[in-house]
Write a structure and sequence with these properties.
With 303 residues, this protein is α/β, with parallel strands linked by helices. It has a single domain, classed as Rossmann fold (3-Layer(aba) Sandwich). The chain has a 7-stranded mixed beta sheet, with helices on both faces. Helix 4 links the parallel strand 7 and strand 8. Helix 4 runs parallel beside helix 7 and helix 6 packs parallel to helix 7. The radius of gyration is 19 Å and the shape is globular.
């Protein structure tokens, strides 16, 4: 009973802290630029690392609460598309949750930033990651490594938070794994209704398949019908095209047997309502709908 009460307070606390941070972020869009005002944390903070089962190393930051106030749950915060663990808003949320007694780990997955080098193979080949090049279906391995790390710290129960496009990663991870260590999921400004349409029709699909088949999966494809240039690698797009249809509609608004039916832990979803949010239907943390971005389309389907 006590654990359930702690979980309920934590989920409400995450919503409150994140919505305050989101409101502040929205204000940044309508006020002149100004210096970032993050102050040093009051409690211990540590850069930490994990290695996934397929040998990808990711970094994160652990915000530790005062020992006397520490709760039995840890929070793992997964970034959105094109972002990383040290985004100022994530740092602020981590510090605020630590002050409330919750150990919080803001983490990278192999999808962080627009591009990164995940690793080198034994043959010396570079493997790219990030929003443009990462294979989205593989980042569950990174989330598993972070849950393992939290358990190593002594937290047998965790809450997974996916911000913006990151909600697709934590949602699919839990739907597929049924990880009993996950006490709750939080979808922070993710998409509600998936878009099941392809961005460029049959020619788009054939182009991605052809490039991957020729061993040129790292080639960038320009996503059509965008107000500004947007790109995605053929390998990233092909991975999303091969994803089971139900993952393009996590909540089952258009398909039967949605992944949400396999999630057995409590779930909190919240959305902003000001300029940096695209409305409840296509809510995200960006100034354009989440479906404009490749990683978001991993869950929602190409726009």
């Amino acid at each position: 009973m006590r654990t359930n009460t702690v979980l309920q307070r934590l989920l409400l606390g995450i919503a409150g802290v994140a919505l305050l941070a989101g409101a502040f972020g929205a204000g940044l869009l309508i006020r002149p630029p100004r210096p970032e005002n993050q102050k040093p944390g009051k409690f211990p903070e540590q850069i930490v690392y994990v290695r996934s089962a397929d040998d990808v190393v990711n970094a994160g930051v652990l915000f530790s609460p005062p020992p006397a106030q520490s709760k039995p749950l840890a929070v793992i915060w997964v970034h959105g598309w094109g972002a990383n663990f040290y985004l100022p808003g994530y740092v602020g949320i981590g510090r605020a949750l630590a002050a409330r007694g919750y150990a919080t780990i803001a983490v990278n997955t192999r999808m962080h930033d627009l591009a990164n080098v995940e690793k080198y193979t034994l043959a010396g080949k570079r493997v790219r990651g990030g929003g443009y090049w990462g294979v989205t279906s593989e980042d569950a391995r990174d989330i598993a490594a972070w849950v393992d790390y939290a358990e190593h710290l002594g937290y047998s129960r965790v809450v997974l938070v996916g911000h913006s496009a990151g909600w697709a990663s934590v949602g699919r991870y839990q739907a597929d794994s049924g990880d009993k260590r996950v006490a709750g999921l939080v979808f922070a400004s993710g998409e509600v209704v998936g878009n099941l349409q392809q961005p460029g029709g049959p020619n788009w699909i054939q182009q991605a398949q052809k490039l991957v088949g020729e061993g040129a999966g790292e080639e960038l494809m320009r996503i059509p019908n965008r107000p500004s240039p947007s790109f995605i690698s053929a390998a990233t797009e092909w991975d999303m095209l091969q994803r089971p249809r139900e993952y393009s509609d996590f909540f089952g608004t258009q398909t039967a047997n949605p992944p949400i039916a396999r999630v057995r832990c409590p779930l909190l979803a919240f959305f902003g309502a000001t300029d940096d949010i695209a409305g409840e239907r296509n809510s995200c943390s960006c100034s354009r709908p989440c479906s404009d971005f490749p990683m978001a389309r991993a869950a929602s389907g190409p726009p």
